[in-house]
From TrEMBL:
<keyword id="KW-0808">Transferase</keyword>
<feature type="binding site">
    <location>
        <position position="106"/>
    </location>
    <ligand>
        <name>S-methyl-5'-thioadenosine</name>
    </ligand>
</feature>
<dbReference type="InterPro" id="IPR030373">
    <property type="entry name" value="PABS_CS"/>
</dbReference>
<dbReference type="InterPro" id="IPR030374">
    <property type="entry name" value="PABS"/>
</dbReference>
<dbReference type="GO" id="GO:0004766">
    <property type="term" value="F:spermidine synthase activity"/>
</dbReference>
<feature type="binding site">
    <location>
        <position position="86"/>
    </location>
    <ligand>
        <name>spermidine</name>
    </ligand>
</feature>
<feature type="binding site">
    <location>
        <position position="62"/>
    </location>
    <ligand>
        <name>spermidine</name>
    </ligand>
</feature>
<feature type="binding site">
    <location>
        <begin position="155"/>
        <end position="158"/>
    </location>
    <ligand>
        <name>spermidine</name>
    </ligand>
</feature>
<protein>
    <recommendedName>
        <fullName>Polyamine aminopropyltransferase</fullName>
        <ecNumber>2.5.1.16</ecNumber>
    </recommendedName>
</protein>
<comment type="function">
    <text>Catalyzes the irreversible transfer of a propylamine group from the amino donor S-adenosylmethioninamine (decarboxy-AdoMet) to putrescine (1,4-diaminobutane) to yield spermidine.</text>
</comment>
<dbReference type="GO" id="GO:0008295">
    <property type="term" value="P:spermidine biosynthetic process"/>
</dbReference>
<dbReference type="Pfam" id="PF17284">
    <property type="entry name" value="Spermine_synt_N"/>
</dbReference>
<comment type="pathway">
    <text>Amine and polyamine biosynthesis; spermidine biosynthesis; spermidine from putrescine: step 1/1.</text>
</comment>
<dbReference type="InterPro" id="IPR035246">
    <property type="entry name" value="Spermidine_synt_N"/>
</dbReference>
<comment type="subunit">
    <text>Homodimer or homotetramer.</text>
</comment>
<comment type="similarity">
    <text>Belongs to the spermidine/spermine synthase family.</text>
</comment>
<dbReference type="InterPro" id="IPR037163">
    <property type="entry name" value="Spermidine_synt_N_sf"/>
</dbReference>
């Protein structure tokens, strides 16, 4: 008998993958969690029926959350990752030697626990001495730590359940206040095919708070539609003004390169129109 996992990405559209094995299913205090092993994408973390990461394509998302912002800020010593309990963004952040401390605030400790067990290639740096892992509410951490971080990265699920407050204007205002005077933040902002209204609203909200706002994209095959967006808000530094030759080549990267840094901000016209 064949087993298949299907994510209903909208009420009328989904993606499906053939399963080798179901490794764990658990209803945590915050969400339904599953870890499954698929034939095409390897081990896959699923939260509330949504694919969060897979062994095969995780590098795209994690590199594109971390490197554009860290290569835009000239001296990112203190970095906060909100969410991201799988550890992939933290792994990418630690590739930058100027980062002295990276703080991970994940609301669901089970995500951390099972990622360490089943996704060691993604979560392998969570025990690094430069990392502080906190099982706590990222929204409250933002409110309670003003003027603390050089870069903040919001690695959230889609805007449902415990992640819903992470897409509100008040949260972005809190991020602004938690960043230092030249700080940068970046958040995943879903896809333009199914969540155009979300991208428009986030862009509008962030523009009312940050003087520099840029949207960029990447291709992630297991995420809804495959075309994914990220929104960067900066107090001082424009990612489009970064000198490409100053960006270090990282041989361990599989997606992000110095050439891609500015190219990622070149959006299809229908996505550009959402950001006006």
């Amino acid at each position: 008998m064949e087993l298949w996992y299907t994510e209903k990405q909208t009420p009328v559209f989904g993606i499906t993958a053939k399963i080798r094995e179901t490794l764990v299913t658990e209803k945590t205090d915050f969400q339904d969690l599953a870890m499954i092993d698929t034939e095409e994408f390897g081990r896959m973390l699923v939260l509330d029926g949504m694919v969060m990461t897979t062994v095969k394509d995780e590098f795209v998302y994690h590199e594109m959350v971390a490197h554009p912002a860290l290569n835009t800020h000239p001296n990112p010593k203190h970095v906060l990752v909100v969410g991201g309990g799988d550890g992939g963004v933290i792994r990418e952040v630690l590739k930058h030697p100027e980062v002295e401390k990276a703080v991970l605030v994940e609301i669901d400790g089970k995500v951390i626990e099972y990622s360490k067990k089943y996704l060691p290639e993604i979560a392998g740096e969570l025990d690094n001495p430069r990392v502080e892992v906190m099982v706590a509410d990222g929204y409250m951490h933002i409110i309670e730590n003003k003027n603390t971080y050089d870069v903040i990265m919001v690695d959230s699920t889609e805007p449902v359940g415990p992640a819903a407050p992470l897409f509100e204007k008040g949260f972005y205002q809190g991020i602004y206040e938690t960043l230092k005077e030249d700080g940068i933040f970046v958040a995943q902002t879903d896809n333009p095919w199914f969540k155009a209204d979300l991208i428009q609203q986030v862009n509008k909200d962030v523009k009312e708070i940050f003087p520099i706002v840029r949207v960029y994209g990447a291709n992630i095959p297991t995420y809804p539609s495959g075309l994914w967006t990220f929104t960067m808000g900066s107090k001082k530094y424009d990612p489009l003004e970064v000198d490409e030759t100053s960006i270090p080549e990282m041989e361990s990267n599989k997606y992000y390169t110095p050439r891609l840094h500015k190219a990622a901000f070149a959006l299809p016209k229908f996505v550009e129109d959402l950001c006006k």
